[in-house]
């Protein structure tokens, strides 16, 4: 994120006072554009303060195929994000409800899923299972990580199988799709939620717009593959504005019987829309 | 012998391509002008054949991609017709329509009832247009899942034949939930309560292949490929140059041999010299023997053990570094 007092909204092009944008959870106060968040920002605005205990912080991908310039790209992403990989996972509470939560980071190689992302998501599911906690995953990803070849593809199977076991155990899994959620992540855990939520305007789809346009030799409508489009097509349960996400998740967690921290300490809701 | 040898494989390819072009040109001339050119063509054809032998003695990953896409390669219907009896095709996903790109059938293999699913690629343009080049819509995957549920209900094994460029990337496929259909199949196959044997026979194109390729035994023909992205797509994204597909094919480690070494494929099934289409009967015999062996071994495994093994197999796939920097699996 570039520093500076003012930020320019990529959609409405208005200059926004950065502090105001942050206060509004990085939703443009003028046009409601939901700016992309890092995984750290996502966890910060979602979980109760200081409740996050990270799992597997040091777990990273390696270069199993000896793929040209992959180690450099990995190091660059690690330096830029100060994270080992493109997903953060751990335990945290939402308005007191205990969860295992993961957040993919689009700023780490496009949130792509290689062996490490697959492993961390699978471990998160297994820990949720072992502790009988609900699993919550925020997706933001361009798909499978090409540089790990079929090993990346196999992470679709690994994560989906782990989530299958959660279903067998009767444990809830909530999936939140953020901008963008595409490719292999949609074709695995993102679309396997008991309840699937999305942020307004998020790009959600399996194939990319350009590939589809080349295939069908037609221009696609502007709103194709947006969260609202997917909702209308019956692919999602709800589109929830970021400022209401925490309370929506809290209500869902209450419904699906998440264990609650005792004593209950309810955080004030994040700043509501002005 | 030439001095310059930047890439021997590429060089052979170029020679072969030039020869084939020349042969084509002569044949066209012969047709258009009704002049006999056989005497001229014969040595060229012979030279082309020699080059092919050279190439296919040690095919490069890019050659293997070509073999996997070979139009005369045995297709699902060939395998089904040769290896199975009493075949009854099942149609439709009960939700939208019948997808001809993906076939589901009840059949007998060695007299035993099985459920067969597979990508139904055609052999010529007409067949391929009718079957969408073996690229399923969501309803194709949902039909496959329906057939697998039947297999589970009756405890019949599933045999899945994989041969697709990928799931169809069209607007309607997206609208009907291509991603959801693939994800659902992957998850359900990971815990289907009956044995699943997968044979990758041609192109294993990414999620569209994996959607019917999660199983207890994953077998792969020697010159099939299995990849997260097509070499052309990979080259276009990585180097903004689709013509570097040859390099991408090598980098992606998409051959049966590579994937066996990576633990993704359980067994590589050898093909006749020059590819499966050179001797289809030998190919069918190899596949029949392997299927028989794996099905027999899986039949005796208690279902809970089978499911645990299947889970663990996929759970272990991938290579990671832990904090202590030792590499795990």
From TrEMBL, chain A:
Gene3D superfamilies according to UniProt: 2-enoyl-CoA Hydratase, Chain A, domain 1
Enzyme class: transferase
The entry's keywords: ATP-binding, Cytoplasm, Fatty acid biosynthesis, Fatty acid metabolism, Ligase, Lipid biosynthesis, Lipid metabolism, Metal-binding, Nucleotide-binding, Transferase, Zinc, Zinc-finger
Start-end of C4-type zinc fingers: 9-31
Pathway assigned to this chain's UniProt record: Lipid metabolism; malonyl-CoA biosynthesis; malonyl-CoA from acetyl-CoA: step 1/1
GO CC, alphabetical: acetyl-CoA carboxylase complex
Pfam families referenced in this protein's UniProt entry, alphabetically: Carboxyl_trans, Zn_ribbon_ACC
The keyword Signal appears for this protein: no
Principal localisation: cytoplasm
EC nos: 2.1.3.15
Molecular function, one GO term: carboxyl- or carbamoyltransferase activity
Reaction(s) catalysed by this chain's protein: N(6)-carboxybiotinyl-L-lysyl-[protein] + acetyl-CoA = N(6)-biotinyl-L-lysyl-[protein] + malonyl-CoA
Job of this protein: Component of the acetyl coenzyme A carboxylase (ACC) complex. Biotin carboxylase (BC) catalyzes the carboxylation of biotin on its carrier protein (BCCP) and then the CO(2) group is transferred by the transcarboxylase to acetyl-CoA to form malonyl-CoA.
Subunit structure: Acetyl-CoA carboxylase is a heterohexamer composed of biotin carboxyl carrier protein (AccB), biotin carboxylase (AccC) and two subunits each of ACCase subunit alpha (AccA) and ACCase subunit beta (AccD).
Protein name, per record: Acetyl-coenzyme A carboxylase carboxyl transferase subunit beta
Organism: Candidatus Segetimicrobium genomatis
Gene transcribed to yield this protein: accD
Automatic annotation (TrEMBL), chain B:
Protein's cellular compartments: Cytoplasm
Domain CoA carboxyltransferase C-terminal: 36-297
Recorded GO CC terms: acetyl-CoA carboxylase complex
Tagged with keyword tRNA processing: no
Reaction catalysed by this enzyme: N(6)-carboxybiotinyl-L-lysyl-[protein] + acetyl-CoA = N(6)-biotinyl-L-lysyl-[protein] + malonyl-CoA
Annotated EC: 2.1.3.15
Primary site of residence: cytoplasm
SUBUNIT field: Acetyl-CoA carboxylase is a heterohexamer composed of biotin carboxyl carrier protein (AccB), biotin carboxylase (AccC) and two subunits each of ACCase subunit alpha (AccA) and ACCase subunit beta (AccD).
Family: Belongs to the AccA family.
Task of the protein: Component of the acetyl coenzyme A carboxylase (ACC) complex. First, biotin carboxylase catalyzes the carboxylation of biotin on its carrier protein (BCCP) and then the CO(2) group is transferred by the carboxyltransferase to acetyl-CoA to form malonyl-CoA.
Name of the protein described by the UniProt record: Acetyl-coenzyme A carboxylase carboxyl transferase subunit alpha
Gene that this sequence comes from: accA
């Amino acid at each position: 994120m570039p520093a500076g007092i003012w930020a320019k909204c990529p959609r409405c092009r208005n200059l926004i006072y950065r502090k105001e944008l942050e206060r509004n959870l990085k939703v443009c106060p003028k046009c409601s554009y939901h700016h992309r968040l890092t995984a750290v920002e996502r966890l910060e605005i979602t979980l109760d303060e200081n409740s996050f205990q990270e799992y597997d912080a040091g777990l990273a991908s390696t270069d199993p195929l000896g793929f040209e310039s992959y180690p450099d790209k990995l190091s660059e992403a690690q330096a830029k994000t100060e994270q080992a990989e493109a997903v953060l996972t751990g335990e945290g509470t939402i308005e007191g409800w205990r969860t295992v939560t993961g957040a993919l980071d689009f700023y780490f190689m496009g949130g792509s899923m290689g062996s490490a992302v697959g492993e961390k998501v699978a471990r998160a599911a297994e820990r949720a299972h072992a502790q009988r906690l609900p699993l919550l995953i925020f997706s933001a990803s361009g798909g499978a990580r090409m540089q790990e070849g079929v090993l990346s593809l196999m992470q679709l199977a690994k994560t989906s199988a782990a989530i299958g076991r959660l279903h067998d155990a009767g444990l809830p899994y909530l999936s939140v799709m953020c901008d963008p959620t595409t490719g292999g992540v949609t074709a695995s855990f993102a679309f396997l939620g008991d309840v699937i939520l999305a942020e307004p305007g998020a790009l959600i789809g399996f194939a990319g717009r350009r590939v589809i346009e080349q295939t069908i030799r037609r221009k696609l409508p502007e709103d194709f593959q947006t969260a609202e489009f997917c909702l209308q097509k019956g692919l999602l349960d709800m589109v929830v504005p970021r400022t209401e996400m925490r309370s929506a998740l809290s209500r869902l967690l209450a419904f699906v019987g998440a264990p609650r921290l005792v004593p209950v300490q309810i955080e004030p809701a994040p700043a509501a829309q002005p | 012998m030439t001095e310059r040898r930047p890439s021997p494989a590429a060089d052979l390819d170029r020679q072969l391509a030039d020869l084939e072009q020349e042969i084509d040109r002569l044949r066209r001339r012969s047709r258009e002008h009704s002049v006999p050119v056989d005497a001229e063509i014969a040595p060229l054809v012979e030279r082309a054949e020699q080059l092919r032998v050279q190439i296919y003695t040690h095919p490069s990953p890019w050659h293997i991609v070509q073999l996997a896409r070979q139009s005369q390669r045995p297709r699902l219907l060939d395998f089904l017709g040769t290896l199975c009896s009493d075949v009854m095709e099942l149609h439709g996903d009960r939700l939208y329509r019948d997808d001809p790109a993906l076939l589901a059938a009840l059949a007998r293999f060695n007299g035993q009832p099985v459920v067969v699913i597979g990508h139904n690629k055609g052999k010529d343009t007409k067949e391929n247009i009718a079957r969408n080049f073996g690229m399923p819509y969501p309803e194709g995957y949902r039909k496959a899942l329906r057939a697998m549920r039947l297999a589970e209900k009756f405890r019949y094994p599933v045999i899945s034949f994989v041969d697709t460029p990928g799931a169809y990337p069209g607007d309607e496929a997206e609208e009907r939930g291509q991603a959801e259909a693939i994800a659902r199949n992957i998850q359900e196959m990971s815990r289907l309560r009956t044995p699943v044997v997968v044979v990758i026979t041609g192109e294993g194109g990414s999620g569209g292949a994996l959607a019917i390729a999660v199983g207890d035994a994953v077998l792969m023909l020697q010159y099939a490929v299995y990849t997260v992205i097509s070499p052309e797509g990979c080259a276009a994204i990585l180097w903004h140059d689709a013509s570097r597909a040859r390099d991408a094919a090598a980098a992606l480690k998409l051959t049966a041999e590579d994937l066996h070494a990576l633990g993704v494929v359980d067994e590589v099934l050898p093909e006749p010299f020059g590819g499966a289409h050179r001797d289809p009967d030998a190919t069918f015999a190899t596949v029949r023997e392997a299927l028989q062996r794996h099905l027999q071994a899986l039949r005796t495994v208690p279902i809970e053990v089978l499911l645990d093994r299947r889970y663990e197999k996929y759970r272990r796939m991938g290579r990671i570094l832990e904090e202590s920097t030792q590499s795990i699996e």
